Amino acid sequence: MRAYKPKDNVQKKPYYTDRYWKAPQVAKFDVESDAQFLADLNAIKAKFEVLDAFIQIEQMTVWINPSDIYGVLELMRDELEYTQLSEMSAIDFLADRGEFEIFYQMLSMAKRKRIRIKMAIKDGQAVDSVSSLFRCADWSEREMFDMFGIEANGHPFMKRILMPYDWQGFPLLKTYPLQGDEFAAWYEVDKIYGKEARDIIGPELRDTARIDRYDSERFARLGHEVPKGMDPDKEENKDKAQSYQEDGGVFMIKKLDKESSKVIDDPQR
Questions:
Q1: Residue 209: how many CB atoms within 10 A of its CB?
Q2: d(C-alpha 124, C-alpha 84), whole Å
């Protein structure tokens, strides 16, 4: 087992200072302003406890208790004509509120309305699977488990769906490093070549902002650009690199105009 290193401050390390800027919420309106939403909300309140409800961007949001999720979605599907579960997932608010926010986006084609069902769970708490109500929830619940580590009780196959089965950690947690942790850096090397090859191969490079001069067949080298396939270090290519920079990075390629049989200049980047 690899040694655990605290990752509480990993999100403060990126050099994009505004990456986690939070936009202000859009305006909320009372449910009474929409007669159809009010009728749907009263139907839910008749059987289940509603913690909060409001309208945002022409759709209603309803907060419920986690234990009621299966019954609420069953009621919406069978009695309120919300027959489609278009989306479901989780949001990590562990640092702010010590909980996950789970949401279910419901769509009614008959009413042309959308209702978002929300609930909050603690870290390590499981949710009830709704895959028997909506088949699309099968993959969505697996993805939620894969990315956040939230299990769905009663799911027929609660395994990872995007990451390998033996992957350690959950990539969409805000405590997960943006470029992966130590396990991610050595995963492919250890799995394919073994740990003894670490000193020979080195860790995986997961910095998306990194520019390698040998990428894309040595297409470009910052400050020494040359046409694709040419080596910028060769003496005979240095003049071409200079002219490339002077032209603003535009090569003039000679092409034949079939109609006039004249050679024309075609700028290519």
A1: 8
A2: 28
Distances (CA, A) of 217 to 228, 231, 232, 250: 7, 9, 12, 19
Tens of pLDDT along 44-56?
A: 999 999 999 999 9
Buried b (16+ CB within 10 A) or exposed e, 173-199: bebbbebbbeebbbbebeeeeeeeeee
Q: What is the pTM of this model?
A: 0.71
Residue 102 token pair:
């789970």
Query: Which residue type occupies 186?
Result: W
- Rg of the chain in Å (alpha carbons): 27
Asked whether 40 and 99 are in contact (CB, 8 A), the reply is no
Contact 43, 80 (CB under 8 A): yes
Rounded to an integer, what distance in angstroms lies between the CA atom of residue 133 and that of residue 82? 12
Q: Specify whether the CB–CB gap between 106 and 115 falls below 8 A.
A: yes
Give residue 42's pLDDT.
97
Residues 173 and 99: their CA atoms lie apart, in Å, by 12
pLDDT higher than 80, residue 268: no
Strand 99-108 vs strand 113-122: parallel, antiparallel, or unpaired? antiparallel
Contact 148, 124 (CB under 8 A): no
Containing 268, the helix (H) or strand (E) segment is: strand 262-268
- C-alpha–C-alpha distance, residues 250 and 223, integer Å: 14
How far apart, in whole angstroms, are the C-alpha atoms of residue 212 and residue 209? 10
